[in-house]
Amino acid sequence: MAGVGVDEAMPNDLKNTAEQIAVEAAHLVRTAWVRMRSGGEVAVDTKSAETDVVTAVDRESEELVRARLERIRPGEPVLGEEGGGALGGGVTWVVDPIDGTVNFLYGLPAFAVSIAAQIDGVSVAGAVVEPVSGRRWTAVRGGGAWLGGDRLSVSAADRLDLALVGMGFSYARDRRVRQGRLTADLVGQVRDIRRRGAASLDLCAVAAGWLDGYFEHGLHRWDWAAGALIAREAGATVLLPGEAADLGEDATFAASPGIAAELRAALAEGGAAEV
Ligand code: LIP
């Protein structure tokens, strides 16, 4: 990472900042979720498709994150799902204010606030905080991955036919159909499939050994920036968009090393590159 003086303490400071702010934003999101469960209304708009929703809470969460970052790390660029932005030359903060927005809207408690610090487009610190469970997933590049105070390590899976694999679908209907065909091809080769609807949590689940693998096409940087670091620091084989032509130019992949090659080959043979 040329161009930015990264002293030894910096990544840990960045992780602490990401975690602290993600906890605050998660509290805001949880308060809204509780209010919605007791009949409260929330304003909802749509984005790329009628099923691709953004709520007022997504926006409020990102506004809080941006305000806190400006106070704690003034002048550092922020790339957020709702407010946009771009990668800068030094530290850039990559923010998904609610990852799993549809789950949040339905009241399904599988969503998170994801904040990562990237330098030259590479995640060096990250935090994923779940508003409902309170689980705090964190990682520092080269410093390991943690769930609260517990060190994370991927599963010891070594057989694809016994692997539990997560995946996700695009909001674009035509692509969802192609992804469905890929999943239909894979489902007979693995133990089972899980589709939870929040990429950051799927990547954290691989880090914890709760999933043996995960793949998805079409994720945005804010979906994977923190979770992919957490998975990699827990020992997963991680391939980011642009790193695996055989899986497709916008594929995200994470798997326990014992099944990574087999899962990658099965997806490639199933036509992942054409999804
Ligand atoms: C979600 C991702 C998920 C994907 C959903 C959606 P959002 O992000 O985390 O993996 O399958 O379609 O993109 O939109 O809730 O921040």
From TrEMBL:
Keyword annotations: Hydrolase, Magnesium, Metal-binding
GO MF entries: histidinol-phosphatase activity; inositol monophosphate 1-phosphatase activity; metal ion binding
GO BP, sorted A to Z: inositol metabolic process; phosphatidylinositol phosphate biosynthetic process; signal transduction
Transmembrane segments: none
CDD domains linked to this entry: IMPase
Binding site for Mg(2+): E81, D96, I98, D99, D223
Catalytic class of the enzyme: hydrolase
Annotated pathway: Amino-acid biosynthesis; L-histidine biosynthesis; L-histidine from 5-phospho-alpha-D-ribose 1-diphosphate: step 8/9
EC assignment: 3.1.3.25
Function as written in the Swiss-Prot or TrEMBL entry: Catalyzes the dephosphorylation of histidinol-phosphate to histidinol, the direct precursor of histidine.
Family: Belongs to the inositol monophosphatase superfamily.
Protein name as it appears in the record: Inositol-1-monophosphatase
Organism: Amycolatopsis rubida
